[in-house]
């Protein structure tokens, strides 16, 4: 969410009515999240001026660990230097820390492609935004889910009940510090996650939603503390159910 919001902001800066705007003091502390969108807190250090040049060798974009040769345009300006400077700063201050983590395994190769392409400045802001929107579409639609056996068949569903919220086993990247609360596309994906976690014996799809509209699933290690709830369904591993009866 943070990276996508940042890319949308940089897309606007690259195509602003004033021309391509560069953030001269590009640091994480210069941004803040407001209602799920990233905002610049200080616009004193911005510029629409692009570096003047006579030939291509005048257009080297230098960073502490990398340098990029750019083209000198016919009007004597380094082509796209403001856009590329913003984008590489986004890569080194945000993408490298946020993109490799917490995405579903099937989506990680797409995010790695974005990371590598922006790190080498092979993507401009237009291509970067398009790539992020593709990942978002796959994530929201569930199209990233690989075809597999129907794992939900291994579960008993108890309609009209939910689990009492309590501290339980932890998982990454949980939305709750008390237990394992993860974003899922639906019950089938939740069953796959539960099967992959040795502690998990049951789960429930909660009424909570993430910024993409996906529901949160709460995973539990025991079957105790069920309470009536007409709008809820508890999914219990059949093996766990048999062991409880024994």
From TrEMBL:
<dbReference type="Pfam" id="PF12260">
    <property type="entry name" value="PIP49_C"/>
</dbReference>
<dbReference type="GO" id="GO:0004715">
    <property type="term" value="F:non-membrane spanning protein tyrosine kinase activity"/>
</dbReference>
<keyword id="KW-0418">Kinase</keyword>
<dbReference type="InterPro" id="IPR022049">
    <property type="entry name" value="FAM69_kinase_dom"/>
</dbReference>
<feature type="signal peptide">
    <location>
        <begin position="1"/>
        <end position="19"/>
    </location>
</feature>
<feature type="domain" description="FAM69 protein-kinase">
    <location>
        <begin position="2"/>
        <end position="116"/>
    </location>
</feature>
<keyword id="KW-0808">Transferase</keyword>
<dbReference type="InterPro" id="IPR042983">
    <property type="entry name" value="PKDCC"/>
</dbReference>
<dbReference type="GO" id="GO:0001501">
    <property type="term" value="P:skeletal system development"/>
</dbReference>
<dbReference type="GO" id="GO:0005576">
    <property type="term" value="C:extracellular region"/>
</dbReference>
<keyword id="KW-0732">Signal</keyword>
<protein>
    <submittedName>
        <fullName>Protein kinase domain-containing protein, cytoplasmic</fullName>
    </submittedName>
</protein>
């Amino acid at each position: 969410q943070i990276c996508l919001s940042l890319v949308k902001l940089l897309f606007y800066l690259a195509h602003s009515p004033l021309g391509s705007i560069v953030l001269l003091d590009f640091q994480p502390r210069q941004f803040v999240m407001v209602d799920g969108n990233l905002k610049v807190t200080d616009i004193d250090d911005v510029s629409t001026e692009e570096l003047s040049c006579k030939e291509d060798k005048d257009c080297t974009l230098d960073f502490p660990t990398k340098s990029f040769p750019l083209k000198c345009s016919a009007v004597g300006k380094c082509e796209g230097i403001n856009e590329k400077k913003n984008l590489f700063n986004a890569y080194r201050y945000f993408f490298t820390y946020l993109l490799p983590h917490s995405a579903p395994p099937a989506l990680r190769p797409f995010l790695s492609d974005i990371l590598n392409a922006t790190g080498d400045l092979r993507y401009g802001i237009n291509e970067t935004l398009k790539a992020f929107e593709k990942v978002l579409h796959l994530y929201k639609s569930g199209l990233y889910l690989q075809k597999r056996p129907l794992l939900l068949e291994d579960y008993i569903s108890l309609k009209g009940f939910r689990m009492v919220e309590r501290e339980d086993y932890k998982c990454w990247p949980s939305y709750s510090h008390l237990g394992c609360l993860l974003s899922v596309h639906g019950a089938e994906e939740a069953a796959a996650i539960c099967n992959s976690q040795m502690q998990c014996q049951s789960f429930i799809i909660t009424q909570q939603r993430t910024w993409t509209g996906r529901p949160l699933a709460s995973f539990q290690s025991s079957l105790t503390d069920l309470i009536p709830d007409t709008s809820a369904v508890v999914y219990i591993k059949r093996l766990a159910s048999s062991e409880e009866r024994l």
